[in-house]
Structure formats: structure tokens, C-alpha cells
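Lab notes, practical 5.
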Amino acid sequence: MRSLLSSTIESGAEPSDSSGDRDYVIALEKGLAIIEAFGQLRGPATLTQIAEVTGNTKASVRRSLHTLCKLGYAHQEGRQFQLAARTLRLGSAFVVSDELTRLAQPILEMTAERTKESASMAVLDAQDVVFVARATHRRSLSVGLSAGARLPAYASATGRVLLAGHPKDWALFILNRMRRPALTAKTLTKVTDVMRQIELVRQQGYALCDQELELGLRSIAVPLKNRQDQTIAAISLSVATSRMDIPTILEKLLPELESAKQKFSALAFPQVSR
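Output from the prediction step:
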């Protein structure tokens, strides 16, 4: 059976509205919102902080946190709560069950081996990109990323590819909602500048970020599309600036990503030819 995410992204469907759905479990929604809130807060958090992020009452959050602690998915230290290692099971379940992730992993590993650089696949989640598959080479630059890691969409090659897969008005709406701090001296933070880069992605079919996330690191990404020509994910390669300049990246790494993209499409969507 295919995972819910695979079915959703292939069809391009959005999650359905829960209003009027008698089978919809509000308590489960609140519990999952709390788990996601820890990701937004990026560390231990108080009940008040979690309530503010989720928009739920403190009483409701307290009950949900109590349940998560009882089940081993969170623990409490004084006034602060933190997710427990058991929550990793949720991410691991996705990785091993999602068809597209399983198809991409060997392709990423082959690409990393051929290029001697780190190869990744990411999807868009609100204002961030989430890495759902990754392959590294022993020579490649380690930036502390693994499956489940998040990066801001506005400043990453994968993020710009994924934003370019949506209508211009939608991408503009998302950019205006998110914080856009300068992560390095090279980070583009103005909406107009980022939108200009997103438009370039639409025209040229790839995104290239030069030290916007981290000094000394360049990344290039291309989109993965479904049968309806909708962008469902992005694959990328990251390289140290000391090893490759931009012309070399375009000459050597972009063809490897295009080849990986073709292999993925042939496996995931046999009738799609790009």
C-alpha cells in the first residue's frame, strides 16, 4: 500500500478540510501540532510557548503533553518539555514506508558516489524544506544535515526549486509570511530578490545558491515532477567552494542531477518522459 504522502504528492492534492468530518479526531490533530511545535521552537519549550505556537488553550496543551510524556514521546524537566528519542520512530516509519523516498535513496547514493559530493531529496513543509532522503560521500562537506533536517526555503536551492513549482502569487504569499534573516553576508533577504531567483528557476530549470546558507558551501537543485507536471520534490548536490566554482558546478554537477532526475522519473512514473 502506498503511503499517504506519496498518494498526495503524485496527485498534487491538498489536505482536505476537516470541517463537518465526523471521523476527524481533534485530539490527534492537537497532539501532532504539539510535536510539530517543538520543531518550530527548535528545542525545549514551556507549556505557554507551545500553546502560543499551536493556538490551543493551555489546558488542552497540558493534557496532550501529559499523554505524550506517558507514552514516551516527550519528557518534562521543571517547567520545560522536550521531545524524546522515541519520536524518531515517526520519521523512520515515513522513510521506510514512503515509496518515492525508497525509490530516490539508491539514486542519491549513486549520484553521491559519482560526484563525490552530498546528494539530497527534499520536500516543502510550510516555510521550510525538509530533507526526506540523503546520501553522503566521505570526501563531501558535512553540514550537519540528515533525513528530517529542515532549512529555510528562501535561502536554499531546494527551497527555491520547490517554491518555483507553485504559482507566483502563492510563492510571494509564503515569502512575505516568513522571517528572512541574513544567515551569511551573501543571503538574499528581500522578497523581490528571492522572487527574482525563483523566476530564474522557472526559466532555467535549476537553482544555485552560493554561500547563502553557510559560508564555504554551494548547492544546486533541480525539481522532481509527477505525471501532472507538478513539482513534488527537489534533489540537490552540495559542494565546498574550495572544490568547485560556479561554472564547474554547472558543467559537472548539473548534468548528474538531470541524469538522476531522469532515473527517478523512469522508476516512479514509467509513463513520464523528461
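Observations recorded by the TA: The radius of gyration is 20 Å. The domain at 98-268 is CATH 3.30.450.40 (Beta-Lactamase).
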